[in-house]
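Okay, any thoughts on this one?
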Amino acid sequence: MNNRFFSSLALRNIKSNKQLYIPYLLSSTIIIMMFYLMASLLTNKFVQERSSSLATLFLYGTVVIGIFSVIFILYTNSFLIKRRKKEIGLYGILGLEKKHVAKILFFETVFTSLLSIAAGLLSGFIFGRLFFMLLNYLLRLPIDITYSTSGVTMLATIALFSGIFGIMFLYNVSQFTFANPIKLLKGKQEGEKEPKGSMILFVLSLVFLGWGYSISVTIPDPLAAISNFFLAVLLVIVGTYLLFISGSIFILKALKKNKRIYYQPGAFISISGMLYRMKQNAVGLANICILASMVIIAVSTTVTIFIGSEETLENRYPFENNVTLFGEVENLEKMNKRFFEFQDDLWKTVEANGLEITENKSYRQLSLFGRLQENEFVFDGNLAEPEKSILLMVLPLEDFNEMTGKSITLEDGEALYYHSTTTDKKESLTIGAETYQLTQVENEFDGNMELTESLALVVPEVSHLLEISKKLKEQFPESNYLTIDAHIGWNTSGTEEKKEVLAKQLENQYGWNAGENSLYESRLLQREEWYSLNGGFLFLGVFLGLLFTMGTVLITYFKQISEGFDDREKFQIMQKVGLDKELIEESTRAQIVWMFLLPIVIATIHVSFAYPIVRKLLLIFGVTNEITWLLSFIGVVFAFAASYWIIYRLTSRVYYSIVK
């Protein structure tokens, strides 16, 4: 027998089992499309240009979807191969050797995988463009976000799913290589044995979930959140699968032991049915739970960023007009002269444009990177270990009093300090051979001190900045991380037109391209781009929400089909032994409610514990209002629950049609 015979037989098998293969091919196509669309975002121009953190998060998301794809395809394949055990066993009875059966399965896998991959890539390309066009139309952002992909993305998708289908083929062959053909003929009728609850798996599920939750709850700062986010997600995913597989069995067995609950006709049917099929149900429910968590996080965070656009704009630009003057450590006197003369020139320019200053703040600072060792700040001259470094900002008391409106006095050797991530009240701090006795103050400093571990130190005189920098320069003569800079910010009263004229004039004079060793930033000029940026995040969040919701629909639909085929013969037997249809439907309705609520409840718990790490990530985008995120989170949970309820009601009709 040649390969043509086996390939023809494989095609005939697929056609004759189209009732099983059509849902399977549809599922595989959509999961491939999901991965392809997710991976395409890594090469998207908006993602690449806006933030390196955004690209990192999407890389993590792509890896998670890849892992999810492996689990999902193996899950759907297990249902397919279970339904075909009798057919494959018949081949052995008719005289085909196991290697011949393996060849048939090989060609079936080749045909279905090629069709799925080709359809998935084509669907991803078409739907990606359609999704982007639709969302651009609905959101009406100032700048359209275009869909893009690359050959690398396509090759990565082909490679991943070729590997997954290869693993699936080996699994299928193993199911028949070590099985007796007679047993295979009965395999479908034998049913599943009652699953044994594993205390080890249950404890492991709690360990993984607790580990993932603890990372989120104890994360120190936003930059650490990015690096630990992926680990936390993986731990929660593993813990979720183990929890559904083991924890659900413990609960059902506990209900079974309760005679008052179990020995009721409806409860008897629903509990027994779920218990005997919980191993397969658990995978599907865990998949839905994970996708639900992804939808809630993706949509709620991006909605929060968009709603809080004005707040984040003000956090990024504390004043309408902001200027940074960059200086050198050897030229402190020149820097001081420039600092005051520059402000005089600015105020004259503001007045010449017919505007009046209503509020202003200016200060000089020495910025250093290093780490704390007991009561000493050790300067990292070459920033060799940036992940371990903290930021130290040294300010003169004169500027601190000016910007806070206070009149604090300090003696030589005294300093004020603020530490962003610890309540450790230090009594002294040594830096650059100078030791200061410390008094703790609240955070009244500009800048993103919450983004990473930071320390602010207020010294008695501006000359201390030069003394500290000189000492450190002697230790690290090649360091490029020693500069004394000045920051000036102010608001004005007047018309928007006059403010815009002033902003454009100052941008031409003191922008990056002006060659003045300065940086001018206007909140007014940045507003449109800022809203476009945050609108882009909302765009991606809605896109991912639709993508993950599509995956939820897919799994729910496939789950209902597989359960329908499993339950059809059982319910027919129940009717033959005298149970009426109303009682059977009541028991299945209770089972559906159970299956509906469980993923939503667990997903809500996951996202609740994810709040601390998500909040840290939102700080990177300038979101500091917790109420905004909380309201977005609650709204998205209810919206997704309502959508999922509709999905479940519609797919339940498929289940009932199969059972009846």
